[in-house]
Amino acid sequence: MRRITLIPGDGVGPEIVEACRRIIEAAGASVEWDVQEAGAGVMEKYGTPLPAHVLDSIRANKVALKGPITTPVGSGFRSINVALRQELDLYVNLRPARSLEGVRAPYKDIDLVVVRENTEDLYAGIERMVDEDTAESVKLITRRASERVCRFAFEYSRREGRRKVTAVHKANILKFSDGLFLETARAVARDYPDIEFEDRIVDNMAMQLVQKPHIYDVLVLPNLYGDIISDLCAGLVGGLGVTPSANIGEGIQVFEPVHGSAPKYTGMNKVNPTAQILAGVLMLHHIGEEKAASRIYEAVAAVIREGKTVTYDLGGEAGTSQMADAIIDRL
């Protein structure tokens, strides 16, 4: 029995996490939930949206499944997701973008993986007001962070049987910072002669993903470009509602949907649970529950393909819990 930290989050988080939990249990996965509360709703009780005991639970269990969390405005962390990544050194954000039949999308048969550096770049938050009319932000790129995220991309590609890694950068303009990232990526690539390597300038990459996405496979990027390009890739397969993610560090992984907490839909049993469920599938793969992961993915794909018991954004009239029930019936 594997113990997993379960963070329902807030907004629509508890509803989609409950749907995901029921499906994982129905699939027969051998998991035990360590439920931890975080988000705007615990601010009054703990004085922070991310209490220390939540981090302690993740460190102890090594794996967490998390719902979306609202970041309070004007207090606490700039972003709870950023805080988790920094506190637990979750240096990789893994974002698969895979087509599902029945989801309205510009393309079919997309199978891309974005490997985004998760700890530095402009997201390091090093900024100041130079004077009242001038703001300055520092783009921080280190060889260490670049090396480990690039090595992860190649190790992941080798393990998953992927064919090619593309490093994405703006080294033609940012010759020191992005130049260091590209130099490091090229050095790491030499250790993996079995995997094709290439690089692309980020603006050209955005155009090519729209024009000919099928020629790409695994993309590795610094933090800001990774954030933008991963959303672009999500758009190729139907949007954030069907896109899961994993935040990965040394021995610790946090799995979550990409989308936000959508507080205006709280309690309405309306939101598409697919991204949260697929985050659960990623988690099950990670902990070795391959059979349960495959069964859930196939059940989700079948329900969406059929299109009868899906949420409004997928063209149906079902609620969150009814779509979960349909997936469980498929199991």
Note the topology:
Elements: E1 2-7, H1 13-26, E2 31-35, H2 43-46, H3 52-61, E3 63-66, H4 80-88, E4 92-98, E5 111-117, E6 127-131, E7 134-137, H5 143-160, E8 164-169, H6 177-189, E9 196-201, H7 202-211, E10 218-221, H8 223-237, E11 244-248, E12 253-257, H9 274-286, H10 290-306, H11 320-330
Parallel strand pairs: 1-2, 1-3, 3-12, 5-10, 8-9, 8-10
Antiparallel strand pairs: 4-5, 4-11, 6-7, 11-12
Helix pairs in contact: 1-9, 1-11, 5-6, 7-8, 9-10, 10-11
How would you describe this structure to a colleague?
By secondary structure, this protein is an alpha/beta fold. The protein has 2 domains: 1-91 and 244-331, Isopropylmalate Dehydrogenase (3-Layer(aba) Sandwich), CATH 3.40.718; 106-237, Isopropylmalate Dehydrogenase (3-Layer(aba) Sandwich). The chain is built from 11 helices and 12 strands. The protein has helices spanning 13-26, 43-46, 52-61, 80-88, 143-160, 177-189, 202-211, 223-237, 274-286, 290-306, 320-330; strands spanning 2-7, 31-35, 63-66, 92-98, 111-117, 127-131, 134-137, 164-169, 196-201, 218-221, 244-248, 253-257. The strands form 2 sheets. The chain has a 10-stranded mixed β-sheet with strand order 2-1-3-12-11-4-5-10-8-9, with helices on both faces. Strands 6-7 form a two-stranded antiparallel sheet. A hairpin with a 4-residue loop joins β11 (244-248) and β12 (253-257). α5 (143-160) packs parallel to α6 (177-189) and α10 (290-306) packs across α11.
